[in-house]
Amino acid sequence: VDPGPTVDRPTGSAFQIRLGSAHSGAVLATIAPTAVALFVSEPEGSPRNRWRTRVADVELLGQRVRVRLGEPWPLFAEITVDSFKEMGLFAGATVWAAVKATEIDVYADG
Question: Do 96 and 37 contact (CB within 8 A), yes or no?
């Protein structure tokens, strides 16, 4: 099964994310923090992009928590305070992140 279009991380790591539409040439991919879902165990379902990572840092923003993720794809996730507490997250915790391919915006680079 063809995984569909992908984009490589610019640092040259082998990690790729799957995109919802084809692209050509160099691109920039953006992912909104609200599009990143966090799980304490490997998720199943439709999101094409799932990876294990660590919580690098957390910041309380009213009723939301901004979670900075570490390698292999450092991103931010925004979740509710209730979700944060229920998951028992803290800096250094291992989590699974997931992003639907259709939630990734792609722009020509150049």
Answer: no
**What is residue 11's DSSP assignment?**
T
Backbone φ and ψ of 60, nearest 5°: -80, 130
User: What letters, b where the CB count within 10 A reaches 16 and e where it falls short, cover 52-89?
Assistant: ebebeeeeeeeebbebbbbeebebbbbbeeebbeebeb
CA atoms within 13 A of residue 26's CA, in its CB half-sphere? 3
Q: How far apart are the C-alpha atoms of 102 and 94, rounded to whole Å?
A: 25
Model pTM greater than 0.85?
no
Taking only the tens place, the pLDDT of each residue in 76-106 is: 999 999 999 999 999 999 999 999 989 988 8
Residue 103 · residue 75 · CB < 8 Å: no
Q: How far apart are CA 73 and CA 71, in angstroms?
A: 5
